[in-house]
Specification:
Helix content: 55-70%
Strand content: under 5%
CATH topology of the largest domain: Cytochrome Bc1 Complex, Chain D, domain 2
CATH architecture of the largest domain: Orthogonal Bundle
Number of strands: 0
CATH class of the largest domain: Mainly Alpha
Distance between the termini: 44 Å
Radius of gyration: 18 Å
């Protein structure tokens, strides 16, 4: 294989990164852009409040899509919608990459063992790992929810079930419509317990 062919293959491979990474200069710019997020999500994306999701270690593509959905009105939140409205496509990408590069920390949460086991069974029954993967680590546009605040998971599942949140192409609304309130509670305990 010629030198040009090797360089062409490297260029193509680098243009489709499995995980977008920032160099030191870009990380500094991203941290500056993310300052406004720190009040709710924490300076490293590890929210200390169950009202706000943990963004650290999340897929950059998922963060990008969710911010875009807030910006374009496919997802609505009184705090996030106005914040996202002013972001450029480059800002969305930069924020996604910044939070994806952060390390998720365990939450301070005492799980109920019986609910965790019931949640595991519900997860298997409704095939959650099919999209979120084993251990709920997520992939691409499917979020990592392992170790997420149970209260946040519970709210999102309830919102999908009630169709207050519908930016999921019908996948989560379909699954959530089959869940009882007890199922949602148990799943939130199970997922919050994972790390």
């Amino acid at each position: 294989m010629g030198k040009f062919s090797v360089l062409a293959l490297i260029a193509v491979a680098c243009s489709f990164p499995a995980r977008a990474q920032l160099d030191a200069t870009q990380m500094t710019a991203a941290r500056t852009k993310a300052q406004v997020c720190f009040g709710c999500h924490g300076p490293d994306g590890n929210s200390q409040s169950p009202d706000y999701p943990i963004l650290a270690g999340q897929s950059w593509r998922y963060i990008y899509i969710e911010l875009k959905d807030f910006k374009e009105g496919r997802r609505s939140d009184p705090q996030m919608s106005p914040m996202a409205a002013t972001l450029s496509p480059e800002d969305l990408m930069l924020l996604g990459q910044f939070f994806a590069a952060q390390k998720q920390a365990p939450i301070k949460f005492q799980a109920d063992g019986a609910k965790v086991e019931a949640g595991r069974k519900t997860s298997d029954a409704v095939l959650c790992p099919m999209c979120h993967l084993g251990g709920f680590v997520g992939q691409n546009e499917i979020p990592r929810v392992a170790g997420q605040w149970p209260q946040y998971i519970k709210k999102q599942l309830a919102d999908f079930k009630a169709r207050r949140r519908t930016n999921d192409a019908g996948n989560m609304t379909s699954v959530a419509s089959t869940l009882s309130d007890a199922d949602i509670e148990n799943l939130s305990q199970y997922i919050g317990n994972l790390y």
